[in-house]
Fold:
Amino acid sequence: MSASSLKRTQLLKIATSLVKTHGFTREALARSVLYLPNQKHVESKQDNEDCQPLSDTAVSSLFGFGDAARTTLIHAWLDEGINHMSNSSQPARNVSDVLHTRLDWNEPVLGYLPEAFALLSTPNPSWLSLQFDPLPALKHAHRIADEAAYLSMDTSRELAWYARRISLAGIYSAAELHQLTSPSTAHSFLDSLLTGSSSLEQKLGDVMLYSDYVYKSWKGILKSRGML
Amino acid sequence: MSLLCSGAIRQSATRKWASRTFIRCTSSYSDRDQKTTSFGFKTIPAHEKESMVKNVFDSVASNYDLMNDAMSLGVHRLWKDEFVSSLKPGRRGPMRCIDVAGGTGDIALRLLDFAREKYADRETSVEVVDINAQMLKEGHRRFKQTMYHNTPQVSFHEANAQELPVEKFIDNSYDLYTIAFGIRNCTSIPDVLKEAYRVLKPGATFACLEFNKVTNPLLGPIYDQYSFSVIPLLGTLLTGDRASYQYLVESIRKFPSQPEFAQMIRDAGFVTGKDIDGAAWNNLWGGVACIHTGVKV
Structure:
């Protein structure tokens, strides 16, 4: 990675730490430069004339115009959330601890999250007839579910692998939505969902097993009739 | 049309001399063993490029707008508007700008007008720098028709973009550096970028508007045909100077591609966005023109 890319990544990382005070805004990106280590901005903090956030033009140049810069910041913050799950985990933690850790990551910025998620769900280009793009939300839930399963040393295979992740994605999405409206009960809600999910998982596994059986049966029938 | 003809006649002596000098320079190249650079599709000794480019612009200075209109069918005005509006001068208070290779003042005027109209900013200033005295003279003449004439908001300086005088263009002193349709005419682009980095303040922006590689596969052949057939012909018809227009068209093809130029900007020390359209650069009209930006961090 070149020095230029490293600096951009550094600025983005610093900006994610400013989200709790400035929100997912261009202001957070602009102020990130003030906290770069070993920079003139920090060295000359005594002299207010030299200590300036990045200009709007500079933010646009580095991170994108208008809301594109905010979207970049939101994605960077979500990536940091994934790293937070990994860094906080110990070997062989259970999935409940990992998901609780991820919910903790949301707490300092809960007030800004609804707008951030709404921004991610805005379809691009906006002239499309779609009012809402569900893909970012699904990707977000899937990433967390996948990381949680990996960190909890999940050993599922084949269809069970997918079932596990779909289940965890659904649980986490529900818990996160609950957290936006009732932060104090979010963790207990997550626990109740995880408890209930084990039976759901079993049912899903049964459905998939039955589907597999039906598929193989039909395959055998078609082969015996010479159609395959 | 009669004005164009009289203008053509008035400039004929200069153009003929420029053409002869152009031919002489290319034929004497083989006798030298020196560092070389491109002058359009021709390879010439590096030390000759400056004077040859100067001759081209001496020749086209008085008809510069006509040249740009011919090359871009008038669209260059829209590109320059887009360039300046993307920079938003004056949004966060007065800025000290430097517009290099901006002799005729197109960009400088747009910067000042934008700051004034959008943000009621009458303190933003632009220093117009050009190596060509004729182009600066043209710019000065144009600014006399505006409210900025004889104000501290605009000033004109004759200087080489590759070697800005240190005493006049101090380190870390500008908030915005712009160069529009000029960097491809410089002998050493890295030197220009190095000087840009030097004079910009930390946190300031470098912005370059330039003709570039057309990425659209349908538009590319049409653009090539127009460039190599129509533009030199227009140069001959409108100003009687085919060689200068031929150089201008060839110089566009020799300019680095969008990712290559973005890398050169990073090599000079700037930080840019990702190497994709819409980040480190922004293609206009499929890449016919392109805005590259970088930030000194």
Observations:
- The interface with chain A takes residues 86-88, 91-92, 95, 175-176, 202-205, 207, 266, 270-273, 278-279, 293-295, 297 of chain B (CB under 8 Å).
